[in-house]
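FORM 7B: Structural annotation worksheet

SECTION A. Query
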Amino acid sequence: MNRIISMGEVRLGLRLIAKQPILSITIILALATGVCLTTIGFTFREELVNGRLPYQAGERFARVYVLSDGGNPVEPNIDQYHAIRDRAASFEHVGAVGVRSFTLARGPNEVESVQGTYLTPRSMAWIEASPMAGRALIAADGEPGAEAVIVIHESMWRNRYGADPAMIGKQLIVGGQPRTVVGIMPQSFRFPSSGELWMPLDELNLAHSITELRMVAVLRPGVSFEAANVEVDALARPLGDKDEAGKVSRVMVRPFTRDSDQANTAASTMVAMLVMVLLVVASNVATLVFARTWARAPELAVRTALGAARTRIVGQLFFETLLLGSIATAIGAAGAFAILQYIKDYMGDIPFWVTLQPTWRIIAFAVFLSLLVSVVAGLFPALKVTRHDLRNSLQAGRGFAAGGFGKIGAVLLVIEIALSVGLLNGAVTLARTFQAYVAEVPALPANQVLTVQLGDIRSDEKRDVIIKAAASIPGVIAAGAGERLPRLYDIPRPTALEPVGDEAAQAAMPAPSVAVGDGYLEAIGARTLAGRLFTASDFIKGAAPVAVVNEPFVQKFLGGRNPIGRRIRIEGAREDGSAEPWREIVGIVPDLGMAVATPSFAGGFYTPVHDEFLYYLAVRTTSDPMKLVPQLRAAVADIDPDLQLNEFATLDNSGREERLVLTGMAVAMTAMGGIALVLSIVGIYALLSFMVTRRTREIGIRIALGARSPQILRSITGGAMMYLAIGGILGSALGLLFLQLRSVLLISIPDADLAMPLTIFMTLAIAGGVACWLPARRALGIRPSEALNAD
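SECTION B. Predicted structure
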């Protein structure tokens, strides 16, 4: 049996690859990009969706959520906990954890915040780590009346206490309570998050007033999460607390590493982007390989005439493409490993189970995908070219859109350009959105306001005392609490303007609203353009409902007319079934960043509250706001040593962590879109450059016979420019469709406009024109004598 590929043909393939460096390098880079992005993307997806804890039973660890009727997690009650712990056959272990910040006293009026965990002591036995000193928590630590103990992390022991060898047995004041250190856990120990201390949770009654207390469990071998979910829901739902509407909560079990549905959403978005980029890569490679194969028709015809079998020719072409794919796979995999390591080294606080190490399945899939593209891109052109009578192909080289390549190549090129332009349009749209969340809001005081997220304050009176304590700190101008900080997106609700006199009633329009406490508007630097801000009497229970609107609201609802004295209300009923009240507009303030990403939603209003939970404290000062942090911690610790204070930041940096995540996503998406577009442009250049080389004889003869430069240019670039235009238009339309996803994305998308798609289209046209012009310029310099000597 004869070999399909001989060593001589292998050497020939290597020489032909080296002989066409631009085309070969472009194919390798395109495939390497696909392998790299596939490996990185699916590694992130694996970590987000299918991650596992680094323990022997890591894949069986679960979170047990008690959900309200609206789908929000709520704290389990003691009956639900006991029912699941004692009666659920799906679990080997059931415990509870509460992750939060704690105040750690370092001296008189000196406190700092540390991240720590309350947990049921028996849960610690399931974590495969031994203390480096002392002991871990044991069941007796969770018994009523047990000594108050604490286990600390090695990082805390070294950084805060200088690796004191006598640390075991010492007392720490945590949350205002003395606790004895009984153990030090090694650096590798992390559960349920990257905290620095662990304290026992009373398993009998869970009585520690912990916010966001959650149940954790370990499934029995062979039990699925779906089966466990059915069992615990049936056990715990009848024991759920009823809300005012009489509805009962539900219970859900999910893998421990899948903390929320946002992971699935992010993973799905990433996979969708990867599919688009990979389609661009596949189209790019297929286009180039098809052109390369078709242009070699004369050479293949000679080999056929000399007696070469079709299988040998197809095998030769397939081997060349497979070799290109193998080189690209090695380069792409190496690049993916380097990029993932860089991300891991420079990323901030990430979940402890995230390794960012590609699994063998991901690597195998990326290799398979690359080789599959190589096989399809190599075999299909080879079979198509050799299907014809190659002896009739000994004529001169063909033009860009000539012969069989033109139809298929045109479709591939248009698809490639459309996908890359559409992806880049969508990516830039998100980048503009995320950038708006960090953009400066002129009406807000720059670097003068400290913001902090308050913990669980179950008393309005205690909140008032804390605000007064903050306001009494030297240098503080104003302090107040609000439901939401500026630049943090809130879903607008339908708002109606009450008609006056014979004025026609207008339909309700969407407008965001923010509930605020006394002093909050003054704290964020609000100034009145007309009317007044809220006064203390507006916060008294039973006071007439009022509102302060911003300037965009006046323009949107009243066309700039005076709103003072007019009344507005949110359409729809409250949770208790009562109607929203009409609120009198008493003042106007500038735009303070209510809906920074979408100008049409910027018009909103503020309402005074006193009996609702206000999440954020704002403190305006005459000095550096961050210098207030120690004083504010000490003042709050005097009122409630166990109160959580989280996310200290200046107003212009509030929500920085969330915005960093959004910005990172925007950069990644923009990079993918840009890479796809660059691949398209480089592919066009490589394709035309290669075709000019193959048509050297034809072009030289046409010049010798008197063909003019414009005719030569049209024959070389005309088809490419037409396909650029078609692909660009289709891609721009695809990008505009992205703007219609407001209803499914939990972010504010900018209003549609033509400026951004037009800019990208013009960039494509200019870059594509240059990519076409460079080979065409070289073609015009071909001399007839060079053409006659061409291969």
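SECTION C. Observations
The chain has three domains: 7-46+270-437+659-788, 58-256, 456-643. Confidence is low (pLDDT under 50) at residues 394-405, 742-746.

SECTION D. Sign-off
Analyst initials: ____
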